[in-house]
Specification:
The complex is a heterodimer of chains A (527) and B (496). By secondary structure, chain A is mainly alpha-helical. Chain A is built from 22 helices and 4 strands. By secondary structure, chain B is an all-alpha fold. Classes of the chains: A mainly alpha (527), B mainly alpha (496).
Chain lengths: 527, 496
Amino acid sequence: MDNSALLTLIAFSPLVGAILVLLPLGKWLGWDKDKEARIIKYGALALSLLPLGLSLILWFGYDRALDGFQFEINRPWIQVLNVNYHLGVDGLSVPLIFLTTLLTTLSIWYSGRTIKTQVREFFFLFLLLEMGMLGVFVSLDLVLFYVFWEIGLVPMYFMIGIWGQPKDRPQYSAIKFFLYTLAGSVFMLLAIIAIYLNTGTFDMITAAELRPFAGNVVLSSLAFWAFFIAFAIKVPSWPLHTWLPDAHTAAPTAGSVILAGVLLKLGAYGIIRVTMPIFPEAIKRFGLVIVILGVISIIYGALVSLAQWDLKRLIAYSSVSHMGYVLLGVGAAALAIGVADQVESATMALNGAALQMFNHGIATGALFFLVGVIYERAHLRDLKMFGGLSSKTPYYYGLFAVTAFASLGLPGLAGFWGEFFVFRGAFDIVTIWAVIGIIGIVLTAAYILWKIIQYMFLGQYDPHKIEHWTDMETGADVHEPGDVVRFEKVTLWPLVFFMVLLGVLPAIILTFFNPTFLNLMTSFIAK
Amino acid sequence: MNSSDLLFLLPELILLLAAVVVFALDLLDRDGSIKPSLPYVALAGLGLAALGLIPPAQALATQGGGRVVASTLTADTFAIFFQALAIMGVAIVILTAIPYMKGRTRYGGEFYGLLLVVTTAICFLVSASNLVMVYLGMEFLSIISYVLAGYLREDRKSGEAALKYFLYGSTASAVMLFGMSLLFGATGALDLQEIAATLAGSPAPDVVWLTLPAIILLLVGFGFKASLVPFHQWAPDTYEGAPTPITAMLSTASKAAGFAILMRAFAVTFGWTWQQWAILLTGVAVLTMTIGNLAALRQTNIKRMLAYSSIAQAGYILIGVVAVLADPARTFTGFNSVLIYLFAYVFTNTGAFAVVAAVETATGSAEIKTYAGLSQRTPWLAVLLFLFLISLAGIPPTGGFIGKFFVFGAAAQRQMWVLLAIAAVNTVVAAFYYLNVVRYMFFLPGEAGEEPIRVAAPLTGAIVLTAVVTLLLGLVPGPLIQWASNSAESLFPFLR
């Protein structure tokens, strides 16, 4: 089979799924309401398994020894503009594609049991969002990249606005998310046009070879910043992060999982895929700025997390902090562009950044699911109201503890390796900033262990704090919290599995990242 | 004028004949039985006129370049583009008007005849290459538009709309005529090319100083038609008060005609000194975008909001005019950006107003809060209005995005970074008020017990057709880009 069709299938099968979900098949085939609801839920799940399966084929079909992009397809789309339908993956994209499809499938499974209103529209938007995210990861043409990037905005806007809880200001959060991201995108569009006017192409690979604005400090800096600001908003980097707490808190659980798990990665992916190869001088020029922004994000994010009493908001800010490590790694690698004896460190920093992306997706995705677990039962997220849950919901405590330790970077679990490689690489390149960044790990341990674990699970359970809990099986009002039920276990165990697997055998995924990043950093030396 | 010129006037002649037929049938209609079919007669007339564009297009293709018709008009691909656009736009407006005007007016027949006449006026205006014809075309278009804006005689707002439009328009026309008289006085010529030759040539150093005043005065007239700031003040009231299909026509076909004549007049007459009007128009573009968007933020009536949005869109389109680069080999030539943007904009905006017409007919109100819960009440209307709004905002994959892409591309090519930054910020600001309507439709609950809105077949057809075109232009923009680029080239010889 000609493998050039695989990426098209991966990117567009969610669209087919979305349209199928939207069609009023129930009305046409005469199903009753309950049957239709069940078919929509299980149908959406089945439809999301298709991209997941295809991404596994991609995972095992990708040849890690080969250089360059694989599964490429390049067909003209808008010939008069030299815009092509150019798709391809390399070692960075493949794991991120798998992460996207995995989290989407788990989110659809979880939402099937927790979204009660306008279910059909929810799954339609979710599958459409999946298409947008997968499209970004496979695009090798800048206009195509931009189109998929924008397509990812709209479903999230609706998910936050329609299914967000009223007390979380969903409309405010939705429009803030949209306008903030759109502002970055519009400037990115201008930079894309500038690249075209300079090189005559929109193709990422060709543009990287042609090096637009090389030698022109002002223009290359402007173009770089236009891209970087758009990506930094998504990452999100301090100080462009203020949309994130509102959006994450207001979104429904599955929305938060996808937002934190995948959408944030789009920004970091963009920096590595677009700005590094196309503007290497500019990113090296401002590499220290990226490092400093990363370190500030780490520490500021952790400190603000430490101050939160709303569990979901705390985890949202922790995302700012965790993505700061990614920025630190990318910035360090940027500074090492063209420096022959720092190629290894730079590769390690990038490995760490990419690893942190993947692990953060898994761990924070799991954390948001876990928040969903307690929120569905207690209908509040105030840490002051929880306490002593370890005695009442031990299974939940177990899952939460593993996830929390993975998030804080305990060796043996996935989160450790990302941070380790980032600091190993950054230490060689930006020693002082790496040392300052390490403080973040202590602060992370503080907010995870003290704020989350201690306030939620340790101590005595006080039955007077929360009088009413919802029983997940029956929906009835009960006095005691119920432990995790089967559908929640099914959602969380795959993520816990990966946390442990990648903690013990990080090579599984590093063998994807390392060759790609080594080639990238070495390519700057040859020039 | 010789007989071969008639070939190039074929669309106008067909349209006039169709208009006469519609008026005649309306007169002969004693018992009201013919009246319901009159819009379809008008549509047939428009269809024939569209077919009538083919012989001139073929003739132009064989001879290459433009051709002067009746010594006052120029038939070229630029004119044919706008004539085709006007015919398509008015056809959709007629579809929108069929259910809307039923029951609101006794004069249903003449309405469609007048719309055909408006289309004729636009056809003359976009090919005018003589000062007198420019003025006649503008007046022709304006006067019929005044009548159409005030068509709902029992509605005070409609009368107010027409009166404001008339007062403003007459003043603007008079100022424009004064500018034309300056040009005639300075050069003794009425033909645009002759004026350019005289002003640019050496024997006219003592009258060349009149160029800038003439540009400014002509801009008053063209700016009025295209609703550019500060000649836009008629637009919100007129758009709000006029019957919604007429608002759709004014904001799309009429505005397109305004831009067409602005481009032709400035390129042909003042192409030799384009920096003068480029700088002036840059300032106008900035003001137009900014004031249009800022004013739209505060609106609670969707027709007024779309009016200010139209004003802002004119600002973006003007950027394309300013950033002109008369080189056919380039991807972005500025003028092709304008044509692409206008084409996408005509369909998108007409579609948006069509939805507004549907909701207005069902609920009697054009307030934005009426749209609360529309996604629950009538999902397909909400989704298609959402599509039109994001196309206006410039979000892919829609025609509006392609338009913005080309306009930004042209400006980037000219390295107009400040203008681009202002346009980018304006795009984000605009997204806010477009999404505000989406917020009402999807996030807020409607009143309890609301029935789904039933939309008559012609209006449904108009909405679906414009939605399909909007989406199609975003996914397969190639043919439009080719057509627009070819058409824009007609004006390049004057700009080198």
